[in-house]
Design brief:
Elements (H helix, E strand, L loop, with lengths): L1 H14 L17 H15 L17 E2 L8 E2 L2 H10 L9 H4 L4 E3 L9 E4 L6 E7 L2 E5 L3 E5 L9 E3 L5 H5 L6 H4 L1 H4 L1 H4 L6 H4 L1 H4 L1 H4 L1 H4 L1 H4 L6 H4 L1 H4 L10 H7 L1
Antiparallel strand pairs: 1-2, 3-8, 4-5, 5-6, 6-7
Helix pairs in contact: 2-3
């Protein structure tokens, strides 16, 4: 693998003509090791297909294929098919058309270009896409897959960076939708709110002693029982007719 890597780098340096750079490369020291490793894989995977013929709508993540229309009889790549194949080496699946690719990742100015960034041509990047290799070189599909100087004519105002710091959030975007599906689960406590109202239904139980207050008034109803001797006063009057017996004077003494 190391020999293939060294050979490919050497061939790329021989094939690429020396030109004045129109795209300034960003400082590689600002890139993380993971970014550099992913970039190396993507660039080398793309360079490995040099010489493969152009085939309209041909190629994809698995390699060159028969195309459609004029490319139906040719096994090869078109521009977006080659980018799909190169980025699949880093575990990234790009859309099939260059126009869709242009809407992904992070937009960067040409002065901020780094290896592996995508260069687009035509309105909204719909005509073609290439990969920036550094030193004002790019990997593109002409008649065959080839390394060419970067062309400013027809280039979109921005390049697109898929690798690097923007790569992880892009791949995790579907994972960020999972919490949105769990939002109803967070509403479950709201359904338990009526359970907090149960104590308010027990409030009448605290009023039960108030209903027992009349029970304390029951002795007040017994007061008439003290008047019962008053009803017996007529019973004391019959002995007053027995004056000879003399109990009456004894009662007067009281």
């Amino acid at each position: 693998m190391k020999r293939i890597y060294a050979f490919a780098i050497g061939v790329a340096m021989l094939v690429a003509p020396v030109v004045t750079a129109s795209i300034a490369a960003a400082d590689p020291g600002t890139r993380s090791m993971d970014y550099q490793q992913a970039t190396d894989v993507v660039v080398m995977r793309g360079l490995s297909q040099r010489g493969v013929p152009f085939s309209w709508a041909g190629g994809g993540v698995t390699g060159p294929t028969r195309g459609k229309g004029t490319g139906a009889m040719t096994v090869g790549f078109d521009a977006s098919g080659l980018m799909q194949y190169a980025y699949a080496g880093a575990g990234i699946k790009l859309p099939r058309s260059s126009g869709e690719m242009y809407r992904l990742g992070q937009k960067v100015l040409p002065q901020q270009a780094q290896r592996g960034d995508l260069i687009f041509y035509g309105p909204g990047g719909t005509q073609s896409v290439a990969m920036y290799l550094g030193n004002n070189q790019m990997l593109e599909v002409g008649d065959v897959v080839q390394v060419s100087p970067v062309r400013a004519n027809g280039m979109t105002p921005y390049l697109v960076r898929v690798l690097g710091t923007q790569q992880t959030p892009f791949q995790q975007a579907p994972a960020q939708q999972l919490p949105a599906q769990q939002a109803p689960v967070q509403q479950a406590p709201a359904q338990q709110a009526p359970l907090q109202q149960v104590p308010t239904q027990q409030a009448p139980l605290q009023q039960a002693p108030v209903q027992q207050a009349p029970v304390q008034q029951a002795p007040a109803q017994q007061v008439p029982t003290q008047q019962a001797p008053l009803q017996q006063l007529p019973l004391l009057q019959p002995p007053t007719q027995q004056a000879p017996v003399q109990p009456a004077p004894y009662g007067i003494t009281r």
